C-alpha cells in the first residue's frame, strides 16, 4: 500500500466543519507561538466557579511538575450536567442500547441530574468524602456513568476497573489506591452471556479488608450473596436519599480519576488525571475531532473501563451537551450486523470504534452491512491501535459509503485525550496514518540517542511540551512517573511508541517500542502475563512477546519452560491458558504457548526478547547477532518447534 493514496476532505464535510484547512493551520501556528494564550482561551469552554488567572505551569525536568489552570476551581459533574439544564433538560444525554436488541432507553439531561444526585447522596451516606477513592466495577449500563459523575460531583476520585478483569486484578487495583467503597452490579450481560461481577467482587474483597461498603446495582436479577453490614442494593439506598446534591468546588488540579494501565515492567500503574485541564481537553478534542454539532447523535463503542470510555463516552460528550450512546453488548450479537442496526435504530451520525472490531466484522463480508441503510452516518473514527490500510479502506467504502471522513485518532491512557488525528473538515487522509497533531500538540521524533529528527524520518515518538489533558502522576509513585515518561529523553514526554513521519509531515504510528503489547486495542504488559504464568506450580520460566494477529492486531505468544519432571501435554497447555484468564482476565489469555526447554539468554542471564519476537513473527531467518548467547543451541530448538497459526 503506497503512502501516496490520499483522500480529500469531502466537500460536504468541508462545508459544515468547524475548522477548515486554513483555520487549522492558523490555530496550530497560534498554539505553538503562544501556547499558554491558546489554552487560556480554550479553558473558557468550561464553567469555572472561580476563574483561573494562571494557565500553565509545567516543568518536564527534575521531579516533573504539570499544572494547568491551577488557581481555578470548578466541578466536572456540574459542567457535564447542571450547566446544560437551562437549555437541555429535556434533551437526551445518554441513549442506552442493551445487549438484547429489544432493550433501550433515553436518559435526558434532567433525568441524568437526578440519577447522579441520588448516587452522590448514596456515596455520601456511605461516608465517602472529597479526595476518597471509589472503585467502579460495572457493566455498560447508565449507572456506570452515574457512578463516575457522582464521584466527580462530591470530589471523590473514581477508579473504574474493566469488568473483564479477574478478582485478583480487581483486588490489586482496590488495594493500590486504597478504595473503601466499591460500586458494582449483580451481573453483566454481554452477547447473551452473564458476567458474574458481584461474585468477582466477593472474591476480590477477601483480599481487601479495608473495604467497608459495596453498592450493588441490580442489572440481571441473578442470584448473588449480600454480605450484611457491607453490601447494599443501590435501588434501596437511592430511594432513601434526595436527588439534590450540591456540587463540590474542586481545584483544577484536584484528582478526577485513576485508571490502571499496563507498563513494560511491574504492576499496572495508576494513571492519575485531574479536573480542570482534563475536562477542557476532553471537551476540546471531542468537539473538533468529531466535528460535533448541536443535535448530533454520537456513538463511541468503547467500554467505560478504558480511557476511551472516560473521555469519549462520558466526559467529552457530556461536557459538550451532546447525546452519547452507550452500548452494553458486543459487535456480533445477536449477529454481526448489530453495530449497523444500532446505527440505523438511533440514527447515529458519528461512529467511533476500534480496528480490531472493524477487522472482525470485515471478515463476515458485506452482507450483514447491506441489510442496513447507514444513511445517518457522517463521520467515522478509529482508535486503539494502528489501523491497517485494508481495514481502513473497507471501513471507508462499506460503512462510510465513500462519503464519511475517517478520523484515525492516536492517543493513550496517559494523554487523557486525542493528540494526533485528522480534523474532518481540514485534513486530507491517508489510510493507516493518524495524520497530524491537533492544535497545541508538539510531537517530535527522536533517534535512540535522543537527537530530534527533522523532515521525513522514523524513530521514537515524544511530545515536546504539555497539553491540559496530560496525566499528572502515577498514583502514589511520582518517581515512577518521572522515570517512565521523562527519563529516556530528558525534557520530553516519551510515548513508548515508534513512529514514522512522511514528507508531507504525516505521522504513522508503528506500534510500541517497549515490552507492552496491544491486543485488540487493549494494552497488556508482557511482564504481567509472564508473572501469571510462573505463578503456576508446574512452570519454571516464561517469556511473552507479541506477534501479528489478523483480527487482534497483536496476539500473545508465550514461551514456557516447565519444571523438571513435568510432561508437556495438550491438557497442560489448555490449563495454562485458563490459568492466565483466571489470574488476569480473558484479554490476557495467551493465543499460542510454545514449550521451551530453554530460553535464549545472554551470559549475564538476560532474556533476549528480540530473538523471541522474531521467532514469534515467523522471521527466524533474520535473528541477527546471536553470538552473545550463553547457549546458541536453545535458539535452534525454538525455531524448530515454533507454533503454527
Ligand atoms: C497505545 C495506548 C487511545 C485510547 C485507547 C488505547 C496505541 C492508540 C492508536 C492509533 C496507532 C494507536 C499506541 C498507544 N494506539 N491509538 N490511532 N494508531 N496506535 O489506550 O491502552 O493507553 O494504549 O495504543 O501504541 O501507545 P491505551
Automatic annotation (TrEMBL):
Any GO MF annotation of the entry: acetate-CoA ligase activity
InterPro entries, sorted: Ac_CoA_lig (IPR011904), ACAS_N (IPR032387), AMP-bd_C (IPR025110), AMP-bd_C_sf (IPR045851), AMP-binding_CS (IPR020845), AMP-dep_synth/lig_dom (IPR000873), ANL_N_sf (IPR042099)
Entry annotated with the keyword Ligase: yes
Pfam families, A to Z: ACAS_N, AMP-binding, AMP-binding_C
Its EC number(s): 6.2.1.1
Residues spanning the membrane: none
Binding site for ATP: 384-386, 408-413, 497, 512, 523
PTM info: Acetylated. Deacetylation by the SIR2-homolog deacetylase activates the enzyme.
Residues the entry annotates as binding CoA: 190-193, 308, 332, 520, 581
Cofactor section: Mg(2+)
Protein residues bound to Mg(2+): 534, 536, 539
Biological role stated in the UniProt entry: Catalyzes the conversion of acetate into acetyl-CoA (AcCoA), an essential intermediate at the junction of anabolic and catabolic pathways. AcsA undergoes a two-step reaction. In the first half reaction, AcsA combines acetate with ATP to form acetyl-adenylate (AcAMP) intermediate. In the second half reaction, it can then transfer the acetyl group from AcAMP to the sulfhydryl group of CoA, forming the product AcCoA.
Protein name: Acetyl-coenzyme A synthetase
Gene: acs
Amino acid at each position: 500500500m503506497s503512502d501516496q493514496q490520499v483522500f480529500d476532505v469531502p466537500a460536504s464535510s468541508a462545508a459544515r466543519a468547524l475548522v477548515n484547512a486554513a483555520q487549522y493551520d492558523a490555530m496550530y501556528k497560534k498554539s505553538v507561538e503562544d501556547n499558554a494564550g491558546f489554552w487560556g482561551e480554550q479553558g473558557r469552554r468550561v464553567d469555572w466557579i472561580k476563574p483561573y488567572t494562571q494557565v500553565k505551569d509545567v516543568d518536564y525536568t527534575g521531579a516533573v511538575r504539570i499544572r494547568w489552570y491551577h488557581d481555578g476551581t470548578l466541578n466536572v459533574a456540574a459542567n457535564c450536567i447542571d450547566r446544560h439544564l437551562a437549555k437541555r433538560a429535556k434533551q437526551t444525554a445518554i441513549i442506552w442500547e442493551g445487549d438484547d436488541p429489544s432493550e433501550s432507553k433515553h436518559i435526558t439531561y434532567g433525568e441524568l441530574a437526578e440519577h447522579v444526585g441520588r448516587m452522590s447522596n448514596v456515596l455520601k451516606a456511605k461516608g465517602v468524602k472529597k479526595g476518597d477513592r471509589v472503585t467502579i466495577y460495572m457493566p455498560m449500563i447508565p449507572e456506570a456513568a452515574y457512578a463516575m459523575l457522582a464521584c466527580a460531583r462530591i470530589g471523590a476520585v473514581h477508579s473504574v476497573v474493566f469488568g473483564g478483569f479477574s478478582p485478583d486484578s480487581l483486588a490489586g487495583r482496590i488495594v493500590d489506591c486504597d478504595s473503601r467503597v466499591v460500586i458494582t452490579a449483580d451481573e453483566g450481560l454481554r452477547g447473551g452471556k452473564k458476567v458474574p461481577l458481584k461474585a468477582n467482587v466477593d472474591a476480590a474483597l477477601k483480599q481487601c479488608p479495608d473495604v467497608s461498603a459495596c453498592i450493588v446495582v441490580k442489572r440481571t436479577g441473578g442470584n448473588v450473596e449480600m454480605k450484611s453490614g457491607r453490601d447494599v442494593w443501590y435501588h434501596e439506598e437511592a430511594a432513601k436519599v434526595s436527588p439534590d446534591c450540591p456540587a463540590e468546588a474542586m481545584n483544577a488540579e484536584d484528582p478526577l480519576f485513576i485508571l490502571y494501565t499496563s507498563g513494560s515492567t511491574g504492576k499496572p500503574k495508576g494513571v492519575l488525571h485531574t479536573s480542570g485541564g482534563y475536562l477542557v481537553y476532553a471537551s476540546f478534542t471531542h468537539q473538533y475531532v468529531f466535528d460535533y454539532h448541536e443535535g448530533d447523535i454520537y456513538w463511541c463503542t468503547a467500554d467505560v473501563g478504558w480511557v476511551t470510555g472516560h473521555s469519549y463516552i462520558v466526559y467529552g460528550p457530556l461536557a459538550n451537551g451532546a447525546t452519547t450512546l452507550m452500548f452494553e453488548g458486543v459487535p456480533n450479537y445477536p449477529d454481526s450486523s448489530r453495530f449497523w442496526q444500532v446505527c440505523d435504530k438511533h440514527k447515529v451520525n458519528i461512529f467511533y470504534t476500534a480496528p480490531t472490531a472493524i477487522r472482525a466484522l470485515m471478515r463476515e463480508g458485506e452482507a450483514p452491512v447491506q441489510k442496513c441503510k447507514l444513511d445517518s452516518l457522517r463521520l467515522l473514527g478509529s482508535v486503539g491501535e494502528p489501523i491497517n490500510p485494508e481495514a481502513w479502506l473497507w471501513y471507508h467504502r462499506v460503512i462510510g459509503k465513500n462519503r464519511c471522513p475517517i478520523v484515525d485518532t492516536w492517543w493513550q491512557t496517559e494523554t487523557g485525550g486525542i493528540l494526533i488525528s485528522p480534523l474532518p473538515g481540514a485534513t486530507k487522509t491517508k489510510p493507516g496514518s493518524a495524520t497530524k497533531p491537533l492544535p497545541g500538540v508538539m510531537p517530535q521524533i527522536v533517534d535512540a540517542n535522543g537527537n530530534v529528527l527533522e523532515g521525513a524520518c522514523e524513530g521514537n515518538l515524544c511530545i515536546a511540551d504539555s497539553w491540559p489533558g496530560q496525566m499528572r502522576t502515577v498514583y502514589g509513585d511520582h518517581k515512577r512517573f518521572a522515570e517512565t515518561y521523562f527519563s529516556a529523553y530528558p525534557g520530553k514526554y516519551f510515548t513508548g511508541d515508534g513512529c514514522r513521519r512522511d514528507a508531507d509531515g504525516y505521522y504513522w504510528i508503528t506500534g510500541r517500542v517497549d515490552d507492552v503489547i496491544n491486543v485488540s486495542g487493549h494494552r497488556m504488559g508482557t511482564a504481567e502475563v509472564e508473572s501469571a504464568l510462573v505463578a503456576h506450580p508446574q512452570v519454571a520460566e516464561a517469556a511473552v512477546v507479541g506477534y501479528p494477529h489478523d483480527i487482534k492486531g497483536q496476539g500473545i505468544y508465550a514461551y514456557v519452560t516447565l519444571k523438571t519432571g513435568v510432561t508437556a501435554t495438550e491438557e497442560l497447555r489448555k490449563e495454562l491458558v485458563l490459568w492466565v484468564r483466571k489470574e488476569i482476565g480473558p484479554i490476557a489469555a495467551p493465543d499460542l504457548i510454545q514449550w521451551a526447554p530453554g530460553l535464549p539468554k545472554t551470559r549475564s542471564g538476560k532474556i533476549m526478547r528480540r530473538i523471541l519476537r522474531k521467532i514469534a513473527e515467523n522471521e527466524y531467518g533474520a535473528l541477527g547477532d546471536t553470538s552473545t548467547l550463553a547457549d546458541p543451541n536453545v535458539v535452534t530448538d525454538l525455531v524448530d518447534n515454533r507454533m503454527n497459526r
